[in-house]
Design a protein that fits this description.
Largest sheet of chain A: 6 strands, mixed
CATH topology of the domain at 36-62 and 81-227 in chain C: Rossmann fold
Largest sheet of chain C: 6 strands, mixed
Strand order of the largest sheet of chain C: 6-7-8-3-9-10
CATH class of the largest domain in chain A: Alpha Beta
CATH architecture of the largest domain in chain A: 3-Layer(aba) Sandwich
Distance between the termini of chain C: 43 Å
Largest interface: B-C, 31 and 40 residues
Number of domains of chain A: 2
Strand order of the largest sheet of chain A: 6-7-8-3-9-10
Number of strands of chain A: 10
Number of helices of chain A: 11
Order of helices and strands of chain A: EEEHEEHEHHHEHEHEEHHHH
Helix content of chain C: 25-40%
CATH topology of the largest domain in chain A: Rossmann fold
Helix content of chain A: 40-55%
Radius of gyration of chain C: 20 Å
Order of helices and strands of chain C: EEEHEEHEHHHEHEHEEHHHH
Chains: A alpha/beta, B mainly alpha, C alpha/beta
Radius of gyration of chain A: 21 Å
Oligomer: heterotrimer
Number of strands of chain C: 10
Structural class of chain A: alpha/beta
């Protein structure tokens, strides 16, 4: 069993009103410790609901959310502890910055945890580094930063709490390609060095293919496919049926394979495609 | 949680009341309030209640919804009823006495009439205005009714525009507040502990982002409005022109007749009347 | 073809007062001309000056030096600023912050109302604009009940009701999910077919590939200005400017660098499929 598990979880919005809507139906997901897991789906697929269930902001209608094997809604478990152990970064987190300096903003979470000053300082500096923020920026007002820097400061604010699991909802939304790469590689750097579990929520197949180890594809409140990135991309037909857009390269190679070209299934990055093409072309010249 | 707060509970529809010119409705509401407080005896009150019931029926708004509007003021009604019941001194013997608590017949009548007034007031205004008039129509009507005040330099159009924008952004800002609260909670902020000062302090992490976001929105909105050629009231026309129709004139006539009858009933001799 | 927007040696900086003569600000001496009826994509990373450039095109910002004209009207001409704004509409990034009214149809009517148009004509335009973005059934809805893509369609309708010649989209797809982006792109493609001049500011290359012309802005200057195929085939340059290229263009680039005979200007799935099939059959 992984570090965080959803067991037969269902969730209903506005229960017993005319607006009642089942957002999740019998969802089972097992998040592996130390891995980056990407949750992909359309708006309304239930992926954001999953994010809020994971740290107890929402309570499942039925089923369990298990953290290290313990039900987080068990009366003996303090929900505030769960929130410290499972950090959640919302969409457009830069809009929650409020302190006078970037340093103090990043320190807000650790301070709420009651840590001593030296430890807080260590964590702020470390997480700023993960997020790719220069130390000289820490003394500035967060409102003087660029859009991408603000986003990174907000993410550092949650990283500084050193949660065992960090959940990020669309961390790269609205950023340009450079900003997106900086954030996603910072998140990977954090995982590589701290070994903590990361859950990314996104609707970009391309980004998730590049930055995750495992994928969960959601559709209409259920899990459609899950597994390692390779395993999931092998089910490309199923993914496309659910209305998600596959990476352009996957579609091209799927079509070539359908023509009988001997290509492995689940090509999803340019590097993959390039390697496949080279081996085919060299094979041709040899033959 | 914050999203559940409904503001200006407008129920779209096409009943005669919905179709009334909002300006007429505004004026009629003011007159209705006057009428409610001029009813004096049992005949006038019965007639008034009859009038309010016909309003409800005409508007095709369900009775359930109307009762919902009354629920929040039940305590207020009870309170005024009790005050009227025990504090009205009548002539003759009290009909009920227990120690120093004495209830006269007049007190009973006053309490009953007070409750009827409050119910008619709430039902009448919500049926005529909030339930059947969209907030924008209401702002519009206010702007047009108050237009003469422009002569004495009251910025009527600007106030109306501010009201429209406020109405437009209330749901957006409520949703945003919800989001920020959740985000700060996820960072371990405790927003509901300690005494009042602690609570106010704890809300700083919510209020600052909210203000900053509101200013950013205002800035962007102003730019978008300029791009759509907004330059104040001057030379501006409206898509929906308010025009009084048959139904409006008819309703005014009906209302005047209603008023006349009510005042006549007030003069009828009866012992069941407000003191 | 006639000219829609023209920039002549335009310089701009928000703090221009401090160095009035220098041209080292956000926009550095840009000259360019946009023909009527073309679909131009303006690419560049955040802070490159692309949004500033758009705001110069409808007189929201005025150049410190140089001249911007819209159908020959100088944007600095205060008398005619409303003529310019009516001709060149703008759809912004945040769908929430450009909707003024509490119902969809009232919001679409906002622009024509400001232009002082007859009520019956406003009604006609509002109905037509809502029809064209397929939002007629939502006309009495409150904007807060709509999805991001729907809100942007309302914003587009609000501009269309002013009957403009040109629409600037200032990162109008950036905050939307893929479905919302498709909705907006479908509208842009339709407008282009109907002869509207469209300027789309974006950092999604899969939107820019549909344009007639791609202008890449970097550090206040025009770095590249050509057809999408020619611009995107310069893979190294684009990547050094912090921009993406379509995956198939990147793949073709890698293969071509290795000496394989493959077109470098592939943009679309179909083209790539054809080229790769042909290459494998050789």
């Amino acid at each position: 069993m992984g570090i965080l598990t959803l067991e037969n979880v269902s969730y209903v919005y506005s229960p017993s009103t005319p607006f009642e809507k089942e957002a999740l139906h019998d969802v089972n997901i097992d998040f592996t410790e130390g891995k980056i897991t990407g949750i992909i789906g359309h708006t309304g697929s239930g992926k954001s609901t999953v994010a809020q269930l994971l740290n107890g902001l929402l309570k499942p209608a039925s089923g369990k959310v298990l953290l290290d094997g313990c039900d987080i809604f068990d009366p003996s478990v303090k929900l505030s502890d769960v929130r410290f152990r499972v950090g959640l970064v919302f969409q457009y987190p830069e809009y929650q910055l409020f302190e006078e300096t970037v340093f103090r903003d990043i320190a807000f979470g650790p301070t709420n945890m009651g840590l001593d000053e030296a430890e807080i300082k260590r964590r702020v500096i470390e997480s700023a580094r993960f997020a790719g923020l220069d130390e000289e920026l820490l003394g500035r007002s967060p409102f003087e930063l660029s859009g991408g820097q603000k986003r990174r400061a907000a993410i550092a604010g949650v990283m500084a709490m050193e949660p065992e699991v960090i959940v990020l909802d669309e961390p790269a939304a609205g950023l340009d390609p450079r900003g997106r790469d900086e954030i996603l590689s910072g998140i990977r750097r954090y995982r590589d060095e701290k070994g903590n579990t990361v859950i990314l929520i996104s609707h970009s197949m391309e980004d998730m293919a590049l930055y995750s180890d495992e994928l969960v594809v959601m559709s209409r409140g259920t899990v459609l496919v899950s597994g390692t990135v390779d395993e999931v991309f092998r089910q490309s037909a199923l993914i496309e049926e659910s209305g998600l857009t596959l990476p352009q390269i996957t579609r091209v190679f799927d079509r070539l394979r359908a023509d009988g070209v001997n290509i492995r299934d689940g090509v999803y990055t340019v590097e993959d495609g390039y390697r496949e093409m080279l081996s085919l072309l060299k094979g041709n010249t040899n033959a | 949680m914050l999203k559940d707060i409904t503001l200006g509970q407008f129920f779209p529809g096409s009943s005669p009341i919905h179709r009334l010119d909002p300006r007429v409705k505004l004026v009629l509401v003011v007159l209705l309030v006057v009428l409610i407080f001029s009813a004096k005896n049992i005949f006038a009150f019965s007639f008034l209640v009859l009038g309010v019931i016909s309003l409800v029926l005409l508007s095709q708004i369900s009775v359930k919804v109307v009762l919902k509007a009354i629920r929040p003021i039940l305590i207020l009604m009870l309170f005024t009823a009790i005050i009227n019941l025990f504090w009205t001194k009548g002539t003759g013997d009290p009909i009920f006495a227990l120690g120093f608590i004495k209830v006269w017949r007049e007190g009973l009548v006053n309490a009953l009439f007070m409750v009827l007034r409050i119910v008619s007031l709430v039902t009448g205004t919500s049926i005529l205005l909030t339930y059947t008039t969209s907030p924008i129509a209401l702002t519009d009507a206010l702007e047009r009714l108050l237009k003469p005040l422009k002569v004495i330099k009251v910025p009527v159009h600007e106030f109306a525009m501010m009201m429209t924008i406020a109405l437009r952004f209330i749901p957006t800002l409520l949703e945003e507040t919800d989001k920020i609260i959740n985000a700060q909670k996820a960072r371990g902020a405790s927003l509901d502990k300690g005494n009042l000062i602690d609570k106010v302090k704890a809300f700083v992490p919510v209020l600052i982002p909210l203000f900053i976001s509101a200013f950013r929105r205002a800035d962007e909105l102003a730019c978008a409005m300029e791009c759509r050629c907004y330059r104040g009231d001057e030379g501006r026309t409206r898509m929906k022109v308010l025009k009084m129709g048959e139904i409006d004139y008819l309703s005014i006539v009906v209302f005047l007749v209603f008023t006349a009858v009510l005042f006549f009933l007030n003069t009828l001799p009866t012992s069941i009347s407000v003191r | 073809m006639s000219e829609m927007i023209r920039l002549d040696n335009v310089c701009f900086d928000y703090e221009a007062d401090e160095h009035p003569d220098s041209c080292q600000g956000i926009i550095k001496n840009i000259s360019l001309s946009i023909e009527k009826g073309t679909f131009v994509a303006l690419l560049g990373h955040n802070g490159s000056g692309k949004s500033t450039l758009a705001k110069l095109m409808n007189g929201i910002l005025l150049p410190n030096s140089g001249k911007v004209t819209v159908e020959g009207i100088d944007t600095a001409d205060e008398e005619r600023i409303w003529d310019i704004r009516r001709r060149v509409g703008m759809v912004f990034q945040n769908p929430d912050n450009q909707i003024v009214a509490t119902t969809v149809e009232e919001d679409v009517a906002f622009g024509p109302e400001n232009l002082g148009i007859e009520p019956s004509e406003i009604r006609r335009r509002v109905d037509k604009a809502l029809e064209s973005v397929h939002m007629s059934e939502y006309k009495t809805h409150s904007p807060s009940q709509l999805s991001g893509g729907q809100k942007q369609r309302i914003a587009i309708a609000g501009i269309l009701a002013m009957e403009p010649e040109c629409i600037l989209f200032d990162e109008s797809t950036a905050m939307l999910d893929p479905h919302g982006r498709e909705e907006v792109m479908a509208q842009i493609m339709r407008l282009r077919r109907e002869g509207m001049t469209v300027v789309l500011i974006t950092h999604y290359m899969n939107e820019a590939v549909f344009a007639d012309r791609v202008i890449v802005v970097n550090d206040g200057e025009i770095a590249l200005d050509d057809t999408p195929a020619k611009v995107f085939s310069q893979v190294e340059t684009l990547r050094s400017l912090g921009l993406d290229v379509p995956q198939v263009t990147h793949l073709a680039h890698l293969l071509a660098e290795d000496g394989y005979g493959i077109r470098r200007d592939l943009l679309f799935e179909d083209e790539a499929y054809g080229e790769l099939s042909a290459l494998l059959k050789k």
